[in-house]
Amino acid sequence: MKILVSKEFKFDAAHNLTRYKGKCERLHGHTYRLRVTVEGTLNDEDMVIDFGELKQIVQEKIINLLDHSYLNDMFDNPTTERVALWIWNQLQDALNGPNYKLKEVILWETETSFVRVTD
Predict the structure, then answer these.
(1) Does the active-site annotation cover 30?
(2) Is pTM, for the whole model, over 0.90?
(3) 109 flagged as catalytic
(4) Number of domains in the chain
């Protein structure tokens, strides 16, 4: 039996879509919501992963880089899809433990619009 463990984060960032025709081609910002999920089995402490460890990894590899940033400095065309895929790639090795692995990244651009990346 596999267990899913998730933690949510928020960060603020600005961007403009360089290959899009419409209002989003202009500079604007979002409060993004990020959910990171790992899948695994219980370790000898009866945990899949410590929430504190999960938080530290995501904070260091993602939030510290993206929060209050201009996403166009990091991405040519920073759609939510591209940013979510980048987050997945940044976390894939770091969240590959002896009893767990990265299972899913969900990135909300607004309260009702999100992108999901899964294995």
Answers:
(1) no
(2) yes
(3) yes
(4) 1
